[in-house]
Amino acid sequence: MAIVNNTLVMESTTINLLLATAQPETMGLQEFYRKYALLHGYFSIVVCLFGFVANIFNIVVLTRPNMITPTNVILTWLAVADMFTMLDYFPFALHFYIFKDSDLKFLETRGYGWMCYLLFHANFSVLCHSVAIWLTIALATFRFMCIWFPTWGPQYCTVRRAKHVIGIIIGSVIILCIPNCIINSWTTVGKNETNILGNETLPNTTKQLDIVYNVDYRSEGAYVHVDKMNKMIQAIIFKILPCFALACLTILLVTAMHRAYKKRMRLRNQGRNEESDRHGEHNRTTGMLLAVVVLFLLTEMPQGILTIMSLVQDYYFNNVYMPLGDVLDIMALCNNAINFVLYSTMSKQFRDTFVSQFCCCCPKKRPGWMRMKIIKSKTEQNGNSVTTHSHV
């Protein structure tokens, strides 16, 4: 529940008491969470499988020599972050949702290895998702600068600077995720072996202890300050600030596209069709990138609003945010998987490159056309005749 986007990992006992402590006005939400949790694992693995393959396609296509541009470099690393998110979430959904032992509470497991994986997942998924958010912000910023400042924007937004920005984002997010790694922990619970009816199966003299691992959260003693720092980082830098930045950049991109459209119409009215078509292609590319940004905004905005409400009052975190955690997760996973569909439907260059790389059965040249050999002869100054051959 909300492991991808919610680093405030609660103890499993607290999570499973949500239904018992829920307020009357949120009982319907708690019931929805309980029923949807039975389906969440299956939905997640389908999305993860599709998204993993789709992002591999994105990486291969966007790294072709004819596709190397500053925005495509950022899109490539966005696909890398999304791919690792899918790869990490798949075993989590399998073990803790689909194959979860019926007698265990949420996020409990009997395997020590799975407990280590859960801690890794709680940190790595936040890292990948946060990198993806800030890469999307960088993508929108680069595109806006190129459109709004057509003279010096493309000169400033180079491939080299795009790589520098990517490195800064990844390095900064890794540092900012250190407090999250520190406070996430685990604990063990000993249970006597019981049968399905809850009766002890062994005599008192021969009882065996069933070791169960569950997540824990360091927030006492010296960890109080780390806990506060982590909550501020996750709420402000990874939730509220990105939502605000994405909203502003969406408005700026729409304004820039409208401005570019009017310029294109003015060029067409002047009879400068070739230049107008070139501006039209740029607008289509901007539209595709705008769709990527808007989808991220639609995914992150509900979390940003709930995060602000949770900071104001703890009631919203326990009774609203946590029951919606699985829904927020599946929304984030779908957003990570859908970019391939956007690129394929909105970019002709992406489609052509994809076909040339993966569709070997498709003819690379139009049928019915043959290459013709042209023989040219010319006389040089010394009187010698030179024959050249060319193909068209």
Give the key terms.
single chain; 392 residues; mainly alpha; Rhopdopsin 7-helix transmembrane proteins; 3-stranded antiparallel sheet; two-stranded antiparallel ribbon; 14 helices; 68% helix; globular
Molecular structure report:
This protein is mostly helical and 392 residues long. The chain has one domain (12-109, 116-185, 228-365): Rhodopsin 7-helix transmembrane proteins (Rhopdopsin 7-helix transmembrane proteins), CATH 1.20.1070.10. The protein is 68% helix and 9% strand. It contains 14 helices and 5 strands. The protein has helices at residues 12-16, 18-21, 27-62, 70-98, 112-148, 153-156, 159-176, 178-183, 223-269, 273-312, 314-321, 325-337, 339-346, 348-358, and strands spanning 108-109, 184-192, 209-217, 373-379, 385-391. The strands form 2 sheets. It has a 3-stranded antiparallel beta sheet with strand order 1-3-2. A two-stranded antiparallel ribbon has the order 4-5. Strand 4 and strand 5 (385-391) form a beta hairpin. Helix 3 packs across helix 4 (70-98) and helix 3 (27-62) packs across helix 14. The termini are far apart. It holds the Pfam family 7TM_GPCR_Srw. One of its GO terms (molecular function) is G protein-coupled peptide receptor activity. Keywords: Membrane, Transmembrane, Transmembrane helix.
